[in-house]
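REVIEWER CHECKLIST
Item 1: Sequence provided? yes
Item 2: Single chain? yes
Item 3: Sequence as submitted:
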Amino acid sequence: MNAKKNYTKAKRRLRLFLWGIIGTLVLSLGVSASVLGYLYMTDLPVSSIQQSSQLLDFHGNVLTALTPGQTQQSAVKLADVASEVVQATIATEDRQFYHHMGIDFKGVARAFLVNLEHLSKKQGASTLTQQLARNLYLSHERTWTRKAKEALYALQLEMKYSKDEILEMYLNQVYYGHGAYGIEAAAQLYFNKPARKLSLAESALLAGIPRGPSYYSPYLNMKNAKDRQKIVLQNMVDMGDITQDTAKRAYNEMLVFRPQEERAETLVAPYFRDYIRRDLAALGIPDEIVEAGGLHVYTTLDKRAQEAAEEAVAKQIPASGDLQAALVSIDPRNGYIKAMVGGKNYRVNQYNRVFADTRQPGSAFKPIVYLAALEKRAVTAATHFVSAPTSFSYDEGRQVYKPRNYGGKYYGDIDLRQAIAASDNIYAVSTIMQIGPEQVISLARRLGIDSSMKPLPSLALGTFPVSPFEMASAYAVFSNEGKRVIPRAILKVTAPDRRVLYEAPPVESEQVIDPSDTYVLTSLMESVFESGGTGNRVAASIKRPVAGKTGTTDSDAWIVGYTPELSTAVWVGYDRGKMISVSESHKAAPIFADYTEKALTSVPPKIFTVPDNVVSIYIDPDTGKLAGENCPVKRLETFVKGTEPTEWCDQHGAKQPDSPQAKPIQETQEAGKRSWWQHFKRWWTN
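Item 4: Structure as written out by the authors:
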């Protein structure tokens, strides 16, 4: 009896359980049907229009689009697109495209497990339809809310359009880089032909670009583009669209690209624009947003300075031939990059030589050696070395270094000012041997130079490559009273709705050199632009205080110089290290002079700030001692207080004054005031 009751109860529970399951299924189906019905009856949102991101200068004026010359979308029917493009796209972007309803649930599950494992949205599972929904109606931000909306819009697209219609829309709006939206625009841009005539090799290459339009652009990186093409072709093999032999032949096919110079857009600061794009990627802003997200990127570039830089380079570097030039200019006070020219013709060659780390700076590196010696109090402006053929032993006497002066010209017994003006090699090596190369490398690191250097005597002559960007950054510390400010190019990035996506932190400076030492070095480097200096030929073109240093190797010509407002590096040479002629080596200095004057045309001349711990006294250049009344030549020289000479010249019949301490100090104060006025008059009247 009890067994029968228990059986009845169990049967009743089972019946209720089954009805519960059936009810849940019916309810779920009802809800699903209601949701699907709602999605079917609801209109899709208005498609968002692709907006070009804008690059703005320091004053907030629009410079250019981040992708200039964006190609007008030219819609084509799916029947007018090469079948290989369709196959390559599906094989690469969504192999299950014809077998799902807009969402690949297996892919979603796989991506969910990967993301759960990494506790992030590391992997996506977007179908081709979801990509279309995102591009048409949503932003590219990586949030779960956006992914949910994307899935719903994808379902709506699948309900309202056929698979071929969805594929056609996708191919007509996807971004292929360099301003080309849609397969027709891409075919014209890269191969100068309609999409229906694209070959298998061309189709596979284009199909690989949307994953990273900048990274896989054949114009920017052919290796990346070919590697991606190979993956696309293998995907097509896996799908059964082509054979392995066909894929191999397509990969080996020599592609003929449309020359970039045939593109008609006007290029504004193109090398700087590419640098900005790199910085935006480093900030984590997706490439799709950069390309068409309607961003406003506020930069440090000064439009007038940029135009002056481009004009100066164009004036000196012939349009024909392989001779190249680079210029980068930084405001030492805040690190703002004001101008950047990476080469003479961006359309022909997009390589930015401002960041080339394969060029030797030559004598332009010597000021770093001298600053290290000034810091160590190993030399002063009055220190003498003999400029003559000299052998220097190092490595505990096991090796010998024999530097030579350019043209075999030697100057005998000279001091530091004369050595800098004449760019004497013997003096530079004598200095580095006195303090040790390690001290120079240590200082270079503090100045922001990260390039590889070895502690050898030849370091004094700039034999280890340093980029123009690093040289301009280092010299900016000289101009900024020993304070280093990290260079920057982006000030702020805003979305179309004015949301701030990024804002640069406040400018911070680090005192890496004593201001007195940098001022003494600056005073010495002004001699480069005076009579007898290697920059004297352009001195008349510069109407303001300026300090700098030239540098020449067999294949490189440099000048790095600065005013209180700008630190600028100019390089001239050949990309492959071809030797430069004498006339070619003289082109860097005029570029620097023309640029500096035009960039600062509205800025009144300003004298470098003199620190309190600096004194100026008259010395006898022959002896380096205090100049007496009978010394035939007296030179006003600058010293860090406490390092100035205390002995009087005794080679010209001069008598030591009764108050040897009073007279030099009195001359220091008067001469300091007098030198300011004399220098200003020279700069103003040149």
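Item 5: Key structural point noted by reviewer: Residues 118-124, 665-678, 680-686 have pLDDT under 50 and may be disordered.
Item 6: Recommendation: ____
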